[in-house]
Automatic annotation (TrEMBL):
<keyword id="KW-0813">Transport</keyword>
<dbReference type="Pfam" id="PF25574">
    <property type="entry name" value="TPR_IMB1"/>
</dbReference>
<keyword id="KW-0963">Cytoplasm</keyword>
<dbReference type="GO" id="GO:0006606">
    <property type="term" value="P:protein import into nucleus"/>
</dbReference>
<protein>
    <recommendedName>
        <fullName>Importin N-terminal domain-containing protein</fullName>
    </recommendedName>
</protein>
<dbReference type="GO" id="GO:0031267">
    <property type="term" value="F:small GTPase binding"/>
</dbReference>
<comment type="similarity">
    <text>Belongs to the importin beta family. Importin beta-1 subfamily.</text>
</comment>
<keyword id="KW-0677">Repeat</keyword>
<dbReference type="GO" id="GO:0005737">
    <property type="term" value="C:cytoplasm"/>
</dbReference>
<keyword id="KW-0653">Protein transport</keyword>
<dbReference type="InterPro" id="IPR011989">
    <property type="entry name" value="ARM-like"/>
</dbReference>
<dbReference type="InterPro" id="IPR016024">
    <property type="entry name" value="ARM-type_fold"/>
</dbReference>
<dbReference type="InterPro" id="IPR001494">
    <property type="entry name" value="Importin-beta_N"/>
</dbReference>
<feature type="domain" description="Importin N-terminal">
    <location>
        <begin position="27"/>
        <end position="107"/>
    </location>
</feature>
<dbReference type="InterPro" id="IPR040122">
    <property type="entry name" value="Importin_beta"/>
</dbReference>
<dbReference type="InterPro" id="IPR058584">
    <property type="entry name" value="IMB1_TNPO1-like_TPR"/>
</dbReference>
<dbReference type="Pfam" id="PF13513">
    <property type="entry name" value="HEAT_EZ"/>
</dbReference>
Length: 892
């Protein structure tokens, strides 16, 4: 029955690839129309085109790509819509598509088989969770187990298996992902995959497909790695792949070892001696692509051990397994990494997409320094001191650059005390090196100076790095160096940012006398004309970031000059509306500049609003600022819309309640931003601005609050709204309640129901094993707690006693559940304990309820014992409020 719906679309698929734009457009329109009129027929016709052995290859390939795109999309909600459309198809149609795709894996034309292998997992990930297409994995395994199967068929089958495993592994809920494959299926997949990986496999294309499939299947191999015999065999086969004659197989095999270092760190000790030999040999002798993967193995081990060390310190728990691989191997591995630093790609400084072995080694050295701290310094400094001044032959720039890179790489990790003397001795040398004849050396020198300012300058320990004596020379060198080539100027902006951040002082800083000159030079750099639009955009962004850091760190004696930036930025913003916008590129250039100028205005406004006496400098220009921001918002570009929204939020704090005069013109943009679900960052920044406006305007915001509350509530209920926004909306309820005070009473019933639903959703995910969900759940809980706290404080004691007693008992029980969850973080603990104090303060009648909950005392004690900032103060405050609440009830 399904066959009757098949239409020959060969000519349309040819037309879709025509060099003639008109022919191409017409073919695309006809294909789109066919899909809309007969979705089932469209799929069946695509399958026929993909499977047709008599069809041209380009037709088959495009048919497969379109078929894949009818099932998959980058956008989550679009992907869900496509999946639902597939699910609704007639079962016979779905069976026919699946059968054709499996058959195409055996096509005489390997390219068609590869294409089918990419489509199969897109259907599998829809059907397997629904307990459909249960014979997929057995069918693929049967093909692999059939003797005499052609190499290209085995390759395509392995690719399909690997892609299916990859899709399952990318599912957000790990527990669900694991349930899709039984242990027997995992065992059978690994058996089939390993059979294609062994050194006895003559076809390297099969070995590559098998090794890639293993990489994707490793996530499900925990039981197999727990079994020593199976683990040994897997490691043996992978290691054999690292010496295959095919470079692609060697790279893929090392990628597997990198993933094992991350996922199976605990079982590595048995293999580390051989892995050390293998990876060092590869780094020293193999082709660059393979060597970079071997370096990545050590970088991954660093990442793992850094995480473990941090977790052990945070939890004061030594039970987490730490093998100290990096500490032990450091004396041997660091010299190998240093040797790779001179293998620079001459384009690596300019082109961000270049990833040379030198950059890989330097990145790994940074991680080693973070992992072992002071131990790395004596291993690296002899290399630095021996090469940083080499200048015998022209190619010695490589040694100077490598030595500078090595020095910069170890500045994060070792203690400031350990580095202080070295840095103080080396800074003058580095300042002189900004005049090195090699642009590569100058670039890395500027980066290293920036790293010194980031990690050593501003510390309370060690010998002071910046003094009144050396600062004039430092500033002079930086302002000369910022005139250098754009990629070097970009590094200088980074150095200035951290010089400023480390010089922050409330009254006057050493940097104050140079504020005007530095900011002026940064503005000149931001508007430096150049032919390379990408580099211009990059340098402009770095320049504005440095200006923002100068403003943020400015001391009181510079605030007059900070205020003078407002008319300057307004003038620059005004000029952007006169730019000739004739192409997509020129539109993007205008949008980027407007967004950056809005960002700078926002930072300036925030800095001047920090001190009441300086707000007048903002208020003086408020009408002009708002006029410009409204013009920017009217352009409807997502990037600048977000920055402009944030700038409006900053302006509300400076202007205060008089901001209400702008609301009639501004409100439509708030509504537009809240409805912009597609560009979720815009929606998120708008939620923040709603909070700012309502908190500042207080009861003056009432005319707009019904609409705003409805929009916020709709966004919480809407599946198309990015989940990251929803905790922010809950926090916005807190600010709205604090602003409206007793007037928030009219929204209580609706918000109480929303909070109840949010609590239920949060508790369903308690003790989840999925890290992303745990992070989101903590954000959700923080939003819930923030909302209730704001409502309590906003309503006042009388209204709270009248309306919130029952909700408060629910909230206390919710906090109890949160405190039992091992996934809660310190921030959430502080918020939760703080809310207990808020409830006790606002609702003294709940004293008996508090005394009936023994876990509350444990929660306060846990908060008190935590060393994070503010924890002890919060615990003491909450304990006092609860004690007062209990005693007032007892005596009443």
């Amino acid at each position: 029955m399904a066959q009757m719906q098949v239409t020959d679309i060969t000519e349309l698929l040819k037309g879709g690839q025509s060099p003639d734009a008109n022919v191409r457009k017409q073919a695309e329109q006809q294909l789109q129309q066919f899909q809309e009129q007969s979705y089932a027929g469209f799929l069946l016709s695509l399958c026929a085109a993909l499977a047709g052995e008599d069809k041209p290859l380009e037709v088959r390939r495009l048919a497969g790509i379109i078929l894949k795109n009818t099932l998959d999309a980058k956008d989550k909600h679009r992907k869900e819509e496509l999946a639902a459309r597939w699910v609704a198809l007639d079962p016979s149609t779905k069976l026919h598509v699946r059968t054709v795709l499996l058959g195409t894996l055996s096509s005489e034309v390997p390219e068609a088989g590869h294409t089918a292998a990419m489509v199969i997992p897109k259907i599998a990930i829809v059907e397997l969770p629904r307990k459909e297409w249960n014979d997929l994995i057995p069918s693929l395994l049967q093909t692999m187990g059939t003797e005499g199967t052609r190499g290209c068929v085995r390759q395509c089958t392995l690719e399909a298996l690997g892609y299916v495993c990859e899709e399952i592994g990318m599912m957000s809920l790990t527990s669900l992902a694991n349930s899709l494959l039984s242990q027997d299926q995992v065992n059978n997949i690994l058996t089939a995959v390993v059979s294609g990986m062994t050194k006895d496999e003559a076809d390297n294309n099969v070995r590559l497909a098998a090794t890639t499939a293993l990489f994707n299947a490793l996530e499900f191999a925990h039981n197999n790695f727990d079994n020593e015999t199976e683990r040994n065999y897997l490691m043996q086969v992978i290691c054999e792949g690292t010496i295959c004659t095919d470079v692609r197989v060697r790279v893929a095999s090392l990628e597997c070892l990198v993933k094992i270092a991350s996922d199976y760190y605990e079982v590595l000790p048995t293999y580390m001696t051989e892995l050390y030999k293998l990876t060092v040999r590869t780094i020293q002798q193999d082709e660059e692509d393979v060597a970079k993967q071997a370096i990545e193995f050590w970088s991954t081990l660093c990442d793992e051990e850094i995480d473990i060390i941090e977790e052990r310190e945070a939890a004061a728990d030594d039970s987490l397994v730490l093998h100290n691989f990096i500490k032990q191997a450091c004396p041997s591995v660091v010299p190998v990494l240093l040797d790779q630093l001179t293998k620079q790609d001459e384009e690596q400084e300019i082109d961000d997409s270049v990833w040379s072995i030198s950059m890989a080694a330097g990145t790994c050295l940074c991680l080693v320094a973070n992992c072992v701290g002071n131990d790395v310094v004596p291993l690296v400094m002899p290399y630095v001191q021996g090469n940083i001044n080499k200048n015998s032959v022209p190619d010695d720039w490589r040694l100077r650059e490598a030595a500078t890179f090595a020095f910069g790489s170890i500045l994060e990790g070792p203690s400031v005390d350990q580095l202080s003397q070295l840095v103080n001795m080396g800074l003058q040398f580095l300042l002189n090196a900004t005049k090195d004849p090699s642009a590569h050396v100058r670039n890395t020198t500027a980066w290293t100076i920036g790293r010194i300012f980031e990690f050593v300058h501003g510390s309370d320990t060690g010998q002071p790095l910046i003094t009144n004596q050396n600062l004039p020379h430092i500033v002079k060198v930086l302002l000369e160096s910022i005139q250098d080539e754009p990629h070097i100027a970009n590094r200088v902006c980074y150095a200035i940012s951290h010089l400023a951040a480390g010089s922050k002082d409330s009254e006057s800083s050493k940097l104050s006398p140079f504020f005007k000159d530095i900011v002026q030079e940064l503005i000149n750099t931001a508007f430096r004309p150049m032919a390379d639009s990408y580099m211009q955009s990059r340098l402009q962004n770095s320049s504005f970031e440095a200006i923002n850091d100068m403003v943020r760190s400015s001391s009181k004696d510079c605030l007059e000059m900070v205020g003078q930036l407002i008319p300057l930025f307004l003038q620059k913003l005004s000029e952007t509306f006169q730019m000739a916008v004739t192409t997509a590129e020129s539109r993007e250039k205008q949008s980027e500049l407007q967004g950056r100028l809005c960002g700078c205005l926002s930072v300036v406004i925030q800095r001047l609003s920090d001190t009441d006496g300086q707000k007048v400098m903002v208020v003086r220009f408020a009408d002009q600022i708002m006029d410009q921001l409204l013009q920017v918002l009217s352009i409807r570009s997502s990037a600048i819309h977000e920055e402009a929204m944030l700038a409006v939020g900053s302006l509300t704090f400076a202007v205060g309640r008089p901001f209400v005069k702008y609301m009639e013109k501004f409100y439509p943009f708030l509504e537009m931003g809240l409805r912009n679900h597609k560009e979720w960052q815009v929606c998120q920044s708008t939620v923040g601005t709603v909070s700012d406006v309502c908190r500042i305007l207080e009861d003056q915001a009432l005319p707009w609050c019904d609409s705003l509350m409805n929009l916020l509530s709709e966004n919480l209920a809407c599946n198309s709204v990015h989940r990251s926004i929803k905790p922010n909306i809950l926090s916005a309820f807190s600010d709205i309640a604090m602003g409206l005070g007793e007037h928030f009473e009219k929204y209580l019933a609706g918000v109480a129901q929303i909070l109840k639903s949010a609590m239920e959703l949060s508790l369903q995910g308690a003790n989840s094993q999925d890290e992303d969900f745990c992070e989101y759940n903590n954000q959700l809980r923080a939003g819930i707690i923030d909302a209730f706290s704001g409502i309590l404080q906003g309503l006042g004691r009388a209204k709270a006693e009248q309306h919130l007693q029952q909700q408060a008992t629910f909230m206390i029980d919710f906090i109890g559940a949160v405190m039992e969850d091992a996934n809660k973080d310190a921030t959430l603990t502080k918020l939760a304990v703080g809310l207990l104090g808020d409830i006790a303060s606002a609702l003294p009648s709940l004293g008996p309820f508090f005394t009936s909950k023994p876990w509350i005392k444990r929660a306060i004690e846990e908060c008190y014992q935590n060393q994070a900032p503010g924890m002890r103060t919060t615990a003491e405050w909450a304990a006092n409020r609860i004690r007062e609440c209990a005693s007032s009830t007892a005596t009443s």
